[in-house]
Amino acid sequence: MSRVLFRVLLLNLAVALAKIVFGYASGAISILSDGFHSLTDAASNVAGLVGVRAAQQPPDQDHPYGHRKYETVAAAAVTVFLLLLVIEVVRNAVNHLTGRSVPSEISTASFLVMLVTVAVNLGVVAYESRAAERLGSEVLMADAMQTRGDVWSSLTVIAALVGARLGVPILDPLAALIVAGFIGYSGYQVARATTGILSDRIVISDADLERVVMSVPGVVGCEKIRTRGSADHVFLDLHVWMPPDMQLTAAHDLSHVVKDKLMARYPQIADAVIHIEPPPPRSSSSGSGEPGPPVERRVHKDPPYTRRPA
Q1: Are 161 and 172 in contact (CB under 8 A)?
Q2: What DSSP designation does 237 have?
Q3: Average pLDDT over residues 212-225
Q4: Do 285 and 193 fall within a single domain?
Q5: Is residue 184 located within the same domain as residue 252?
Q6: What angle do CA 187, 193, 199 make, to 5 degrees?
Q7: Are residues 116 and 241 in the same domain?
């Protein structure tokens, strides 16, 4: 996977540099902005490479949960980079719209550069999609989807260049503002994902996990289901109720059945910690303190509580 990401990184850098160099040389603000947009793909590749390399490092004494959050930190840095790009693109576009910058002359070379880079991006999308399907990689598939968005951005720029060539030069800075919107949306998506991971947002629905747990014969109920991590690397802990008269060894074996079934249903679960306990007594016990009727097979819901930091 690292080899695929590295190759794609080189291609994205080549595309970005071609657009940026030609954009500065020709003064075409839309091409320059699209080059900055292509840099976001390269930045995403860097974050993916950091995540893959970090995932290869085993947990140690200082990092018992592994090193996957280094990818999240890298992605957070990408968000700051995207914010700076949006500011630069908007500033250049406003300068052109207000007449502070001289309108650029759209040449045939402008179309040639954009068409070649679109062709390269389409090749990257096809290459990453095939590799993602072969390796079963969510990282590669997500990166291919982001590059496909870059293709649409480039097509918007080409349409604006056609309009500018036909005598409507204002379309060039307007296209730059549209590209700034693409970059801003990419930054929003990255920021939303990284914030969810760093704040330990729920990853898998409690109800979905409950159904899997309750499908195991012998389980009486479950509670305190908690998930955290990234979409492809989840940590799970929960409490599972066992019959009060079950031997400890049997309850331990049953907890492994529950764990195996959960991890088979959700391969993205890196580890699951299961606490076994008897079901709580019914609140409607007799006045003498005797326990009520046997507890039915059910799922208990606890009120919200403060999550202990990792």
Answers
A1: yes
A2: E
A3: 94
A4: no
A5: no
A6: 125
A7: no
